[in-house]
Design goal:
The complex is a heterodimer. Chain A is mainly α. Chain A is built from 14 helices and three strands. Chain A has three domains: 78 residues; 90 residues; 120 residues, Nop domain (Serum Albumin, Chain A, Domain 1). Helix content of chain A is 67%, strand content 4%. In chain A, strand 2 and strand 3 form a beta hairpin. The chains are: A mainly alpha, B alpha/beta. Chains A and B meet through helix 3 and helix 11 of A and helix 3 and strand 7 of B.
């Protein structure tokens, strides 16, 4: 017997499918498929079957079914929480860029209004320099500064939301490297599912693609770390052990991502041993031997 | 194929993706579409009004919309949700496009929806493009033909594109395919080769 979207064909003839679109999708998914014996259906079979009366109706019904399947799949994809997290963390990183750009431009403008102003030898953080510029009386300038300040506030709020969401969606990854960096890993990989399918060596250099490809093409030294460099245990580690910390951390992250994706719960035993392994990797080189 | 003063065009209602029009025909840009680049390279494969096409790697549906202008029906397979949204919008306007959201490397997931096709067109970024092509050649009619847009960089960035092409051709021949023609898509697309083949 051969099964097609419009019905089953066997020696006795054809049994057209009857039922709703949802049932039809469920039936399609349950069809057993053997490439050795399978032959694609001729569209005329659907007429013999009594399922449609002509080519136009065949295409119309098939399109209706395919649209239904695709829309359902797209819906499932966009409803998963990690996909929203990806968009949130990308927005966060874009906000950082935009705020920096606007602040730098505003400082340049501010200098023309206050020729004696210089930022060079004062410790003025980006946040404080905005506070200083707020005192300027020019109305348009003041409005722009207020907008920058508002963006900074949204950015802080968004960052907190990203961290909280990451803690629930990726509990194990977040426990290892913090919610924000974990979210950035997901953003680079595309989704939690894709991250969970990556080998540890790929996770280690995620975000260092240009260095990696230049290594493969020209043989320059391979990158030791990508995004995971942002985690304190990697960037605080001594130069001689940094590669090792990155490698161990990436290995544990690979496991953590799989627990996050397939079990969706925190695993304390795993985390304890993983934290220990990472800390040990950051110890003095001879301490391990 | 339709040419107006050396410009490749297709029939049908315009304004699908902001393409330019020429005397009420839609201009088919070789820099955007690998299939158009293939025709600009002087290839002879004609699309016919009675053909059924299986299109793997449909993406946003820009090339698909042109193929649909030339043929009877296009089965457009795409996996990623974002481009799929755009593809659905295109397919909504063209009644001869059947959008299938599935993984082209797993033909079993969409086999019951298909019918035998005259042309298998493939433009997917995957290291195993040859394997995907041969598994999907199951849907080809005996008289059918397959056009594989080989992305050599997706197969191996470390190797020379020419070597990747030769290896892929050898693999195809192992899998009972007869190579009819190969063309590079220069100057429109770097490191892409078009392979035209048929089943033995």
């Amino acid at each position: 017997m051969q099964s097609y979207w419009f019905g089953d064909l066997d020696e006795e003839g054809c049994h057209p499918f009857k039922g709703s679109l949802t049932d039809q999708v469920a039936r399609l998914e349950s069809i057993d498929w053997d490439p050795a014996t399978y032959t694609p259906a001729e569209w005329e079979d659907a007429i013999t079957c009594g399922y449609v009366k002509d080519r136009a109706e065949y295409l119309q019904k098939l399109r209706k079914l395919c649209f239904f399947i695709a829309e359902a799949k797209i819906g499932v994809y966009f409803r998963s929480k990690d996909i929203e997290l990806v968009q949130m963390v990308r927005m966060l990183d874009e906000l950082d860029d935009v705020i920096n750009l606007l602040t730098e431009r505003a400082v340049e403008w501010y200098r023309t209004k206050n020729p004696s102003f210089s930022r060079k030898y004062r410790s003025l953080s980006a946040k404080r320099v905005v506070q200083v510029m707020k005192k300027e009386r020019d109305r348009t300038f003041g409005e722009i500064i207020a907008d920058i300040e508002k963006l900074q506030e949204s950015r802080t709020r968004l960052m907190r939301e990203v961290t909280t969401l990451a803690d629930t969606v990726l509990p194990n990854c977040s426990a290892l490297i913090g919610g924000l960096v974990a979210a950035r890993l997901i953003s680079r990989a595309g989704s939690l599912e894709e991250l969970s399918r990556l080998p540890a060596s790929s996770i280690q250099v995620l975000g260092a693609q240009s260095a990696l490809f230049s290594h493969m093409r020209t043989g320059s030294p391979p990158p030791k770390h990508g995004i995971i460099f942002q985690h304190r245990r990697v960037h605080n580690a001594g130069r001689d052990v940094r590669g090792r910390v990155a490698r161990v951390l990436a290995a544990k992250l690979g496991i953590a991502a799989r627990i996050d994706y397939f079990r969706q719960e925190i695993d304390h035993d795993f985390l304890e041993s993983a934290q220990e392994a990472v800390d040990k990797a950051g110890g003095k080189k001879d301490a391990l031997d | 194929m339709l040419w107006i003063d050396g410009v490749l065009v297709s029939e049908g209602k315009g304004g699908v993706y902001g393409e330019k029009m020429l005397r009420n025909y839609r201009i088919w840009d070789p820099y955007r579409s690998k299939l158009a680049a293939y025709y600009y390279g002087g290839a002879g494969l004609e699309l016919r009004k009675d053909e059924v096409v299986l299109y793997l790697g449909a993406a946003n549906g820009t090339t698909v919309s042109h193929v649909a202008d030339y043929t009877e029906c296009v089965y457009a397979v795409e996996l990623a949700p974002r481009p799929m949204q755009d593809l659905l919008a295109v397919a909504g306007k063209r009644k001869n496009i059947v959008p299938i959201m599935a993984d082209a490397s797993r033909p079993e997931s969409y086999a019951p929806l298909l019918e035998p096709v005259d042309l298998l067109y493939m433009d997917v970024a995957d290291p195993d493009q040859v394997g995907i092509a041969s598994r999907n050649s199951l849907f080809l009619k005996q008289s059918g033909i397959a056009l594989l847009m080989l992305k050599t960089r997706s197969i191996d960035v470390r190797k020379e594109p020419e070597d990747v092409l030769q290896e892929s051709l050898a693999q195809l021949e192992e899998k009972e395919c007869v190579i009819r023609e190969t063309n590079w898509l220069l100057p429109y697309h770097q490191d892409h080769a078009a392979i035209l083949f048929a089943k033995k």
